[in-house]
Amino acid sequence: DTGVSQNPRHKITKRGQNVTFRCDPISEHNRLYWYRQTLGQGPEFLTYFQNEAQLEKSRLLSDRFSAERPKGSFSTLEIQRTEQGDSAMYLCASRSTGTLTDTQYFGPGTRLTVL
Amino acid sequence: RKEVEQDPGPFNVPEGATVAFNCTYSNSASQSFFWYRQDCRKEPKLLMSVYSSGNEDGRFTAQLNRASQYISLLIRDSKLSDSATYLCVVIEWEEYGNKLVFGAGTILRVKS
Predict the structure, then answer these.
(1) Contact yes or no for A43 and B45 at CB 8 A
(2) pLDDT tens figures, A18-29
(3) How buried is A42 (Cβ within 10 angstroms: 0-12 exposed, 13-18 middle, 19+ buried)?
(4) Which of A16, A72, A78, B77 could bridge A20 with an S-S bond, Cβ 3.0-4.6 Å?
């Protein structure tokens, strides 16, 4: 257990529905990242926050995706009008910029299945 | 061309064998490199960082060749518990910080 938690761990939804995932990073970590992983692939970067500021978004993040980190602590990732292609594992990671290491610590992920 | 490329395997080896994985990266400006391990349906976990001088952690040795832009991982005396997917990771430095770029992973199966 890295100390990063994600909820829910599994989500099954019907196409067209909206879903929201939550990530609670390690408490002293100011950087928070979202990744998506599909079967047989490595995780792909989606977006990241430094404190409450969203500093970068991948081109993978269509306008149906939105992420927030309102108080610089937990973050939410919302997918609107889900499509079957959104089925994947959504991983959250965090790190502190106050250390010399680039190590990111991953949460257990939320596995999304869109029917 | 993918930014980070790995042989997907699977590598099927007997217990006690030595196995090596390679990974190539396309961005010559990349500065930091890692190997992560991922068990089935679990999150990736840092295995080790990769330094230019090479580094060793028990049965695991990582090497970096900047000129050829490849990274290697050597596992000696393989254990059943080493069975997992090994992800090669490169840090991409952006204006506001960095992000991890993952390879697709190499599957290792150690059999008794």
Answers:
(1) no
(2) 999 999 999 889
(3) buried
(4) A78
